[in-house]
Amino acid sequence: MTSTTAHRVAALGNRGRGACRLAGVAVLAVWLHVSTWAAEPLTLAVSHGPVSLTVWVAETNGYFEREGLIVRVRDCTSGRSCVEMLDAGADLATAAELVVTLGSFSRADLAIIATISASSHQIKLIARRSAGVTAPGQLRGKRVGTVLGTSAEFFLDSWLLFHGLSAGDISLVALGPDQLAGALARGEVDAIAIWEPHAATALKSLGTDGLSMPNPRVYTQFFSLVTTRGAIAKRSDEMQRLLRALLRSQQFIADEPSRAREILVNRLGMEPGAADAQFREHDFRIRLDQALIGAMGRQARWAVREGHVKPEGKIPNPLDLVEPSLLRQGAPGAITLVR
To answer: Rounded CA gap, 20 and 28, in Å?
Structure first.
């Protein structure tokens, strides 16, 4: 064989090996793509509000996919309706901790695996000036709408107590979250206690007649990632990856607040100024804080006192309603629970 022929044979061999390597890479890419999409999706029921920003950031930025997950996000109007979806096919739900506190009196399988936002100003009391309400004491005898058995009612009760009033001093009107702003605008109630973005909607609809009442730190809401013990047993690995994706969201929100606010604007369809105000009212760290346990203990006693639940035996221990093992895998420093 001549040297020229040998060079040609070697070149052909190199091309062949290169082609094989490229083919191997392509096959691997296809396999990874197919295996990811062949995985069973996680269904996450998400409450519509700024409290869910970490989920929306993960969805927008592809963080779930980076963790090899398919996450189906299902919108719901409140944390309570989100948790109800756990019995209708959802694997996880976002909800205020109060939903789990109340639920623990009738079922033992609910568990919080992390909180995704905390805020002392997520729930507000919006009043009509034309109803003669411009100061806390003027609520006495007035009609106040809220969503019974939710964190909004718990906030209202705490707010009244802080200002020397009680639920007996007002006329409480039970309404759904989507009904409150309209009822206030039509004069059917004099004030409402509700979470965002409904509070901002109500305030905007009233124009100069609207007033956001003083909002002391009477209640910090811990918006939580809720699931069931059975779902944890079946899908703990995927839930750990979901938490890793949300930890990426936490970092993005801290590093790129302007871009995070843009996501909030797009998801809620609100004006940038309003989105900015709500953004600044939240702590979007993924964590499990001891303060969560204290809040749930107070809520359990409140729920018994107000007749929202009928305890059979001892009041549930809030520590039994939290499962820290999944978050501990990715962010042990985010857990400050005392057992």
So the answer is: 12
Q: Clarify whether residues 85 and 234 are in a common domain.
A: yes
Domain boundaries, position 252: 44-120+220-334
What's 195's domain CATH number?
Answer: 3.40.190.10
| Cα separation, 166 vs 34, whole angstroms | 59
Ranges 10-14, 144-148, 176-180, 269-273: which has the least confidence: 10-14
Mean pLDDT of 214-221: 91
**Same domain membership, residue 177 and residue 33:** no
Q: Are 44 and 92 in contact (CB under 8 A)?
A: yes
pLDDT band at 77 (very low <50, low <70, confident <90, very high): confident
Count of domains in the chain?
3
Q: How confident is the model at residue 110 (pLDDT cuts 50, 70, 90)?
A: very high
Residue with tokens 């106040």: 144
Per-residue b/e over 148-169, b at no fewer than 16 CB within 10 Å? Answer: ebbbbbbbbbbbbeebebeeee
Contact at 8 Å (CB) between 308 and 101?
no
**Do the beta carbons of residue 48 and residue 77 sit within 8 Å?**
yes
Q: What is the pTM of this model?
A: 0.85
Mark whether 34 and 71 lie in a shared domain: no
The secondary element (H helix, E strand) that includes residue 225 is: strand 221-228
Residues 191 and 232 in one domain: no
**Which of 15-24, 209-218, 298-307 is predicted with the least confidence, judged by mean pLDDT?**
15-24
The token pair that represents 248 in the structure block? 């990426």
Answer with the one of 163, 184, 212 that is the final residue of a domain. 212
CB 253 within 8 A of CB 93: no
